[in-house]
Task: inverse folding
């Protein structure tokens, strides 16, 4: 009997599984391209040596100014968009995961790349902007809600980290209220957990009363005093 007859044929799902892995690895590598560190090389500065030491948009703004920070945020959001779009575009339709699940997994993988970038010694940012890029592709209607929550907390407190954490924690609640599917719900939970983890230093400083704040952003406080 021929050997081929003794070997069970590979299922379609098994045959295309490597493509799913490849898409997630690509998403991680794209996410590892840090906007602040790439732009910083053009300016001859590593913002991880300045301010809070974080390679994200907030530290970029505090240490390098608005124009630099806007470029950083644009790159960090853009890579989330790109990684997610590629996963949706090339996801194997016969795989065990749905096309939508590929998109959410790729968005999260890109955020992991942003936090622990292989190209930059595994020292990156906190992942919020890259997750926003993924949401812009997968769940754009959630963004106005999250931005509104973020803005209200920022204007009330002046704490960017706190505003980001509360906005992230509202994402699973929004998914539950809107009766989201399992890929969206699991992504929301994972994204919220990641943001809380990457902002653990901010939360510790808040408890200690040493967290930096944008005093000029506290418009509600200024309005009460006027």
Result:
């Amino acid at each position: 009997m021929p050997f081929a007859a003794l070997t069970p044929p590979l299922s379609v799902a098994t045959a295309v599984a490597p493509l799913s892995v490849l898409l997630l690895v690509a998403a991680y590598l794209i996410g590892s391209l840090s906007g602040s560190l790439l732009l910083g090389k053009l300016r001859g500065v590593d913002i991880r040596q300045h301010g809070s030491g974080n390679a994200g948009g907030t530290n970029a703004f505090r240490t390098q100014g608005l124009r630099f920070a806007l470029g950083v945020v644009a790159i960090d959001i853009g890579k989330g968009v790109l990684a997610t779009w590629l996963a949706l575009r090339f996801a194997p339709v016969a795989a065990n995961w749905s096309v939508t699940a590929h998109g959410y997994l790729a968005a999260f993988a890109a955020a992991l790349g942003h936090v622990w970038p292989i190209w930059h010694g595994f020292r990156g940012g906190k992942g919020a902007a890259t997750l926003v890029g993924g949401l812009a592709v997968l769940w754009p209607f959630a963004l106005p809600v999250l931005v509104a929550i973020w803005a209200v907390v920022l204007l009330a407190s002046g704490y960017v980290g706190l505003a980001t954490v509360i906005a992230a924690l509202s994402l699973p609640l929004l998914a539950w209220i809107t009766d989201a599917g399992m890929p969206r719900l699991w992504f929301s939970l994972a994204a919220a957990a990641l943001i809380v983890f990457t902002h653990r230093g901010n939360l510790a400083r808040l408890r200690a009363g040493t967290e930096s704040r944008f005093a000029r952003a506290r418009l509600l406080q200024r309005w009460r005093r006027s």
About this structure: The longest helix spans residues 66-90. Confidence is low (pLDDT under 50) at residues 1-16.
